[in-house]
Description:
This protein has 378 residues and is α/β, with parallel strands linked by helices. It is 37% helix and 15% strand.
Amino acid sequence: MAALSSPFTLRDVTFKNRIAVSPMSQYRAINGYANNWHLVHLGRFAMGGAALVYAEATAVEADGRRTHGDLGLWEDEQIEGLRQITKFISDEGAVPGIQLSHAGRKASERRPWHGETPVDEEDITLRGEAPWQPIAPSPITYADDWPDPTVMTEADIERVIHAFGEAARRAKEAGFKIIEVYAAHGFLVHQFLSPISNLRRDKWGGTAENRQRFAIEVARSIRKHWPEELPLAFRLSATDWLDGGIEVEDTAQIANALKAEGVDLIDCSSGGIAGRDRPRRMEIRQGFQVPFAAKVKEAADIPTMAVGFLWDAKICEGIIENGEADMIALARELLDDPNWPLHAATELQSNDNHEKWHNEFGWWLMKRDRLLKKLGIR
Ligand SMILES: Cc1cc2nc3c(=O)[nH]c(=O)nc-3n(C[C@H](O)[C@H](O)[C@H](O)COP(=O)(O)O)c2cc1C
């Protein structure tokens, strides 16, 4: 059996293979509520053979949304729509996961296709969507022409930590089996972690230990509500790609500290802390973030997930086989081909006669394959 097709267990949750659907914001929710778009978007990945299907960045409070279209779990009424999605994903043999998020200074942004710039008065006229005031650890803007965030008071910090815990309780009630905290790409938890965005001099900033405190408290708050038998993951930006920012060695330390708080997996992404221009040090090629997953796994002795610009089944197989990561996550490749996990298993000779496909598809494809062979077509 291919390594990519082998099962993997965290706490009491077993993933049938090593392939995860990376969280992908759809900007399609209304007031944070999930709808049929989310059901079909996520459901087709469960049908396509992924072991873990993550729902997109889901805000723990309304003002923590990045855009007006983000999903949310800040009120109990938002549970029901998500429950339908987790039921479908579970019934089709995949594990439903959710990414919990707070955008911090990146809140009140336009959807990508509306410009990925701050929401302003124009959006009220165009879409009936008003801007709101972002918050952050320090009074530093995300990029030029972005509004100054309000510096978080002690009460703000306590409120958001509490909101992560409450959202975890709702995620449990909605039927999710793994939570990933969005602590990457310049969102609030990352804003506390990085010395580029956190210039505080109180217990929440200054030293590395102080900058980690918010992430640690978020993990503790979640663990209060999240069952012992279910895994908790963090997505970290392993490097900021900027001098004076987080480096992979820092990330290994953060991972170690999180492990002690009941975090089971580190999803190793990178970048996003400041502005939209690609940092000079960042060179993109297939699997360019895999070395971070390997380094964190080794240095912190914690399972990791590799993500970013991956699509070749053999390369993904190598990552698992060589022990560079325990799971891989794909985003854009799965948008292009939601059946990628099934095709990859065939390419790696782990899917004889379409056995991994649901019968509703696989039975027909198997018959067609036989016919094609018989006719000498392929
Ligand atoms: C449509 C879309 C939405 C995304 N939304 C999120 C998100 O909500 N949370 C997150 O951590 N990353 C998000 N990402 C980043 C992906 O999860 C992934 O890390 C990135 O696209 C690199 O993987 P890929 O090369 O396989 O696409 C998004 C990417 C895409 C394409």
